Amino acid sequence: MSGIVIPVVREIDGIATADSRDVAEYFGKQHKHVLRDIRNLLKDIPNLTVQFWAVKFNNRGREFDCYRMTKTGFLMLVMGFTGTKASQLKLAYIEEFDRMQDSLRHLWDREYKSLMEAANELGRIESDFRRAASAGGRSLARWRNAKPKIKAEFDKLQAQGQLLLELEPGRTTRRVIDATSMISYVAPKLLAGC
């Protein structure tokens, strides 16, 4: 019986993959024999190289070869494994590949939906900014027209420095006002004339 009870399929860069070491252990084979079978497949069918990629792993300070494989690569490899038990193990591995691919597909669908929602929101924000910039341009033109009038009136008020306020009939007093008060007093009157 193999050491791994369930097939091991891992996601690598968004692709469901199996490792030749896990396949060897699961099917009760020596890893060197699985490597030999993969190399023979790649020699016989060169376009399968996109289904397998060689990687290195360290064990007890030494570096060894192994292969990562896609579902198609796995299927091509295990077609040569025979017997009733091998057929059951193949089926379990295929089901695990399918489960992982479905999981990745659902994850991608959620991510894609989130990305599309974010892109649509950015489109709405851009549109709002364009409208605001257009309105702002018109407001800026009005401000440029009114600014000299407001500044002239402000300078005149500042020169006076004080306003005469009638507190009681027949009695006036002088009150110093700040710049904010002057602008709020003068600006609406000037903008109404623009």
In whole angstroms, the N-to-C terminal distance is: 92 Å
Care to count the β-strands?
6
Strand order of the largest sheet: 1-2-4-3
Shape: rod-shaped
Return the domain count.
Answer: 2
* SSE string: EEHHEEHHEEH
Q: Tell me roughly what share of residues is in helical segments.
A: 55-70%
Largest sheet: 4 strands, antiparallel
Instruction: Work out the radius of gyration.
Output: 39 Å
In terms of DSSP E residues, the strand content is 15-25%
Count of DSSP helices?
Answer: 5
Uncertain stretches of 5 or more adjacent residues: 162-168
Helix-and-strand structural type: alpha+beta
Q: What is the average of the pLDDT values?
A: 77
Walkthrough of the structure:
It is built from 5 helices and 6 strands, in the order ββααββααββα. The protein is an alpha+beta fold and 194 residues long. The protein folds into 2 domains: 10-105; 145-192, no CATH class.
Secondary structure elements and their pairing?
Blueprint: E1 10-12, E2 15-19, H1 20-27, H2 31-44, E3 52-59, E4 62-69, H3 71-78, H4 84-160, E5 163-168, E6 171-175, H5 179-192
Antiparallel strand pairs: 1-2, 2-4, 3-4, 5-6
Helix pairs in contact: 1-2, 4-5
